[in-house]
Amino acid sequence: MSEQANISLLKQAYAAYDKGDIQTLLSLLAQDIEWELPEVEGIPFTGKRHGLAQVSDFFRILAECQEPREFKPDRFIGQGDQVVVLGHGAYTVKATGAEYSDDWCHVFSIAGGKIASFKEYFDSNKAAQAYQPRGAGAGAAAGKGATRPAIH
């Protein structure tokens, strides 16, 4: 496929995601797709997945965990069978109510007219903080609530 055809394929995938049409999105993926996000402790949809069943599970878990307030691909850069997409998003974590936003970079490879691999880069620290239970870490890290030994 040409670079423009690859970009068009990805624009279809993002449009399907934007409409919540995960079945159409999955139909654009190769059966043996490689799917990877940085592994972030406490965020169950991160890490590596392989194949359509695991990627379908990714989208299910993602929807259970957070609500996108904004998710926008801004720029598509194609070269050969690779496409890089730059964008930004804003999310609400359902378990904590915390909101966060970040810029992201998605790197795709296309083979046989299907999306063969996906790798995401994002601000994993912002996401980890938003997924941390309220009050966890902040007070303890600052020493709040901790007792100090008496000075004699």
Poorly predicted spans: 138-152
Please write the string of helix (H) and strand (E) elements.
HHEEHEEEEHH
Quickly count the helices.
Answer: 5
Strand element count: 6
Mean pLDDT across the residues is 90
- Strand content is 35-45%
Query: Roughly how many Å is the radius of gyration?
Result: 19 Å
How many angstroms separate the termini?
Answer: 77 Å
What does this structure look like?
The protein has 152 residues and is of the alpha+beta class. The chain has five helices and six strands; from the N terminus they run H-H-E-E-H-E-E-E-E-H-H. The model is unreliable at 138-152 (pLDDT under 50).
Entry summary:
This protein has five helices and six strands.
Q: How does the SSE layout of this entry go?
A:
Layout: H1 3-19, H2 22-27, E1 29-37, E2 47-50, H3 52-65, E3 66-79, E4 82-93, E5 99-111, E6 114-121, H4 124-131, H5 138-142
Parallel strand pairs: 1-6
Antiparallel strand pairs: 1-2, 3-4, 4-5, 5-6
Task: Provide tags for this entry.
single chain; 152 residues; alpha+beta; globular
